[in-house]
Design goal:
The complex is a heterodimer of chains A (208) and B (220).
Chain A: H1 8-31, H2 37-50, H3 53-65, H4 67-75, H5 77-82, E1 94-98, E2 103-108, H6 117-120, H7 125-128, H8 130-135, H9 140-146, E3 156-161, E4 167-171, H10 183-187, H11 192-196
Parallel strand pairs in A: 1-4, 2-3
Helix pairs in contact in A: 3-4
Chain B: H1 30-43, H2 50-58, H3 68-82, H4 88-93, H5 112-118, E1 123-124, E2 137-140, E3 159-169, H6 172-175, E4 184-192, H7 193-197, E5 206-213, E6 217-219
Antiparallel strand pairs in B: 1-3, 2-3, 2-6, 3-4, 4-5
Helix pairs in contact in B: 1-3, 2-3
Classes of the chains: A mainly alpha (208), B alpha+beta (220).
Chain lengths: 208, 220
């Protein structure tokens, strides 16, 4: 079976089995001197608490408020993002693509799960799922509807399939009525999904 | 033996809805965190490279049935087994049965931050000029590569336009097979929806971009 958790009992026993199996593998690898368990703890903590979509939100908010930074970001995203302190693993070669009135960008990896970790963290389950990977390149408007997003018919949808080591970051459109907001408040409007292109930035004081 | 990737999902029909998920912990179980960390830590030993890792996962015969981190676990076990680092009987027994080869590097706790910060850039100096120019019309290879490749099936044998040149990058097809980096020019190629999905497919005002290494392309 596919491991979908439509049956609670099966799901729980499967989790138990996986826990045991992974623990055993970790014990073997540690005993052979191939991994340092303390390094594993640090890796997990890093991707749970330090590297996540708030990094990208800060990048976007800066681009919304600083025209020079925006230009740099669109020209050389890897360097512009590094200037804010984000880089490294799965963020070595970043390209930022900006949404406009005439074009909406959406990112997928149809072949696996390539994703700009340095600015968005690890991908959500749906990004790695078969339906998203299958449909994004063929029926992006249908996928957007699953996220409650409808674009004007006249807007071009550009889908970026991350087939090599370039990682794409979508710069969503700045919501109307945000002229008086500072960078930190603006970053709060930038959702993870808006930087993948399956969502829009939130309106101030309201829902998405 | 022919090479079959089960991971090439782009454009596959009859897939269900996409289920949005709130921002937050990217892991859904403790074992997923450990598998992710084990994979990164073993990757850092240099026992294999990222392209080999992808190849190991995409060729799992029960790819569809395994969950995402289930694939990572099985891919890791496969790579370990192929190199005699952890043998299948050790996986079954859940304990060490024999000493494995010594690895040149082990990721120490003190080095994690530096290793993540360094990443693994794939861009290399150019030794040849790029064969294609921005704006040029190209056709992707039609044949199916009998090995790991990053040209998705839906974009095979299709005409598109070179939109950007991304520099020279480690060539995944060679790297995954242990043939060294063989760096190649990398291009962003854009396709129209009728080219990909046929003239009768419902129109979405859609264009799709892929990143394609030079050997994937010919002049159209």
């Amino acid at each position: 079976m596919s491991g979908h958790d439509d049956d609670d009992h099966d799901a729980h026993s499967e989790l138990g089995e996986m826990d045991v199996r992974v623990r055993a593998l970790e014990t073997i690898l540690a005993a052979k001197g191939y991994v340092d368990p303390a390094a594993l703890d640090i890796l997990i903590d890093t991707y749970q608490t330090q590297i996540g979509p708030r990094n990208g939100a800060r990048v976007v908010a800066r681009a919304w408020t600083d025209p020079e930074f925006r230009e740099w970001l669109l020209e050389d995203a890897t360097a512009a993002i590094a200037s804010l302190g984000y880089g490294g693993r799965q963020g070595e070669h970043i390209v930022a693509v900006e949404n406009t009135e005439s074009r909406h960008n959406m990112v997928v990896c149809t072949l696996c799960s390539c994703y700009p970790w340095s600015v968005l963290g690890l991908p959500p389950a749906w990004y790695k799922s078969a339906p998203y990977r299958a449909r994004a390149v063929r029926d992006p408007r249908g996928v957007l509807a699953d996220f409650g997003v409808t674009l004007p018919d006249a807007t071009e949808v550009r889908v970026w399939d991350s087939t090599a080591e370039v990682r794409y970051l979508v710069v969503p459109r700045r919501p109307a009525g945000t002229e008086g907001l500072g960078e930190a408040e603006l970053a709060g409007l930038v959702t993870r999904d808006s930087m993948i292109g399956t969502g829009l930035a939130r309106a101030p004081g309201g829902a998405a | 033996m022919s090479y079959v990737s089960h991971a090439d999902l782009g454009g596959r029909a009859h897939d269900g809805p996409v289920t949005p998920e709130a921002e937050g912990n990217p892991f859904h179980a403790r074992w997923e965190e450990r598998v992710h960390a084990l994979t990164l830590a073993m990757g850092a030993t240099g026992a294999w490279n990222l392209d080999m890792s992808r190849a190991a996962r995409e060729t799992l015969t029960d790819y569809d049935a395994l969950g995402y981190y289930g694939r990572w676990l099985r891919g890791l076990e496969k790579l370990l087994g192929e190199r005699g680092l952890v043998t299948p009987d050790e996986i079954t027994a859940g304990r060490v049965l024999r000493a494995g080869p010594v690895l040149p590097r082990v990721l120490a706790a003190a080095d994690v931050a530096a290793v993540l910060a360094r990443g693994a850039p794939t861009e290399r100096p150019a030794s040849m000029p790029a064969r294609f120019a921005v704006g040029e019309r190209v056709r992707t290879r039609r044949d199916v590569a009998p090995h790991h490749t990053r040209l998705p099936g839906y974009a095979r044998g299709k005409c598109g336009i070179v939109e950007s040149i991304r520099g020279v990058h480690v060539f995944a097809d060679a790297h995954a097979r242990g043939q060294g980096e063989q760096p190649q020019w990398l291009y962003t190629v854009v396709f129209g929806e009728a080219e990909l999905w046929g003239a009768r497919a419902p129109r979405q005002r859609l264009s799709v971009a892929i990143d394609a290494w030079e050997p994937y392309l010919e002049r159209a």
